[in-house]
Automatic annotation (TrEMBL):
Record organism: Devosia equisanguinis
Protein's cellular compartments: Cell membrane; Membrane
Protein known as: Heme A synthase
Subunit structure: Interacts with CtaB.
Pfam families in the record: COX15-CtaA
GO molecular function: heme A synthase activity; metal ion binding
EC number annotated for this UniProt entry: 1.17.99.9
InterPro entries per record: COX15/CtaA_fam, HemeA_Synthase_type2
Gene Ontology process terms (BP): heme A biosynthetic process
Keywords linked to the UniProt accession: Cell membrane, Heme biosynthesis, Iron, Membrane, Metal-binding, Oxidoreductase, Transmembrane, Transmembrane helix
């Protein structure tokens, strides 16, 4: 593997690159995780996440096949607060719609395990994976399983007292998905053959790591916005409730609860982190332009800047349009892509010789 990383890009043939199928697989897994996140976003926005009230890892793959099975699922849903408080108007046909999205989300999550495990075993048999690579990859498999457990833990929060899932658990679930996504991309980039050119210092690594941290924090903050339906209020920009800093940000006691449970404060924090990331990336691009331009590994920065501008525009459009599903899901997916670019930048800087 070392010899491949030392070789120039033009000197590496597909025949000699035994890790190429592994990289394709890892990028495919990352794309699959992103698909699950998109479907999860649709599930959340259609308020479908509590439609299946039990966890059946094997038999749950098969949806209800006859009227009796559908009635049983519907009756189970009618026992939770979301139905009695919010959706008591629902007919069986209405229930089938929300059931589909939660079932599809869970189906994709189950499929991710197979899409990971089967090629992993094949690559082990083919001896494409060294011990140093196989162990971290197996760790990612464990992380994927933990993510599934987090998903069910999240669902259980809405089955007894709440009419939706806990925003705390939603944030944990989405952040764990982001960590899995960036880890897959990092490993794939780390085993890419060929030299990476450019000057890299501790300053570059530190500022890129901080950028990644900020993006992940913003994704977590977005989960709190989604969990509280905070985007459904204060749908103006740049003012919020008629002011730059609206009143009522700290009306809850104790004060810390406002950061996670006050819809106004949660949306304000989400906006604030967006402004911070925008200013920070702008500064990084200005600093890099001043220090020598964007050749080599630092070519990642302009790409990051472009995706950031798209993300800012999409976020504002999502808010002003009243959080339509298409824009909201695109906003979430683009946030993951921004995190993916940041980790790609970090991975390539680590490959500079």
């Amino acid at each position: 593997m070392t010899s491949l990383q030392d070789a120039a890009p033009g000197q590496v043939s597909f025949a000699s690159d035994r890790l190429r199928p592994v990289r394709i697989w890892l990028y495919g897994l990352a794309a699959f995780v992103l698909l699950i996140v998109v479907v999860g976003g649709i599930t959340r926005l259609t308020e479908s996440g509590l439609s299946i009230t039990s966890w059946k890892p094997i038999s749950g793959v098969i949806p209800p096949l006859n009227d009796a099975e559908w009635q049983a699922e519907f009756q189970a849903y009618q026992q939770i607060p979301q139905y009695s408080v919010v959706n008591s108007w629902m007919s069986l046909d209405d229930f089938k719609f929300i059931f589909f999205w939660e079932w599809f989300h869970r189906l994709l999550a189950r499929a991710l395990g197979l899409v990971f495990l089967v090629p992993f075993v094949v690559f082990l048999v083919q001896k494409r994976l060294s011990r140093e690579l196989a162990l971290p990859l197996f760790g990612l498999f464990i992380l994927g399983g933990f993510q599934g457990a987090l998903g069910w833990w999240m669902v259980t929060s809405g089955l007894t007292e709440l009419t939706s899932v806990s925003q705390y658990r939603l944030a944990a679930h989405l952040t764990a998905a982001c960590l899995l996504f960036v880890a897959l991309i990092y490993v794939a980039r780390s085993i890419t053959p060929g030299r990476v050119i450019g000057h890299v210092s501790g300053f570059h690594m530190g500022t890129a790591a901080l950028l990644l941290l900020l993006v992940i924090m913003q994704i977590g903050a977005g989960a709190f916005v989604a969990g509280l339906d905070a985007g459904m209020g204060y749908q103006t920009w740049p003012l919020m409730d008629g002011a730059i800093i609206p009143k009522g940000l700290f009306i809850m006691e104790p004060a810390w609860r406002n950061l996670f449970e006050n819809a106004m404060t949660v949306q304000f924090i989400h906006r604030g982190i967006a402004y911070l990331i925008t200013a920070y990336i702008g500064w990084l691009i200005w600093r890099r332009h001043k220090d020598g331009g964007f050749g080599g590994v630092h070519g990642w920065l302009p790409r990051i800047g472009v995706i950031l501008l798209l993300q800012v525009c999409l976020g504002i459009a999502t808010l002003l349009a009243g959080v339509p599903i298409g824009l909201a899901v695109g906003h979430q997916a683009l946030a993951f892509m921004l995190a993916g670019l940041a980790i790609g930048y970090i991975a390539d800087m680590r490959r500079v010789r």
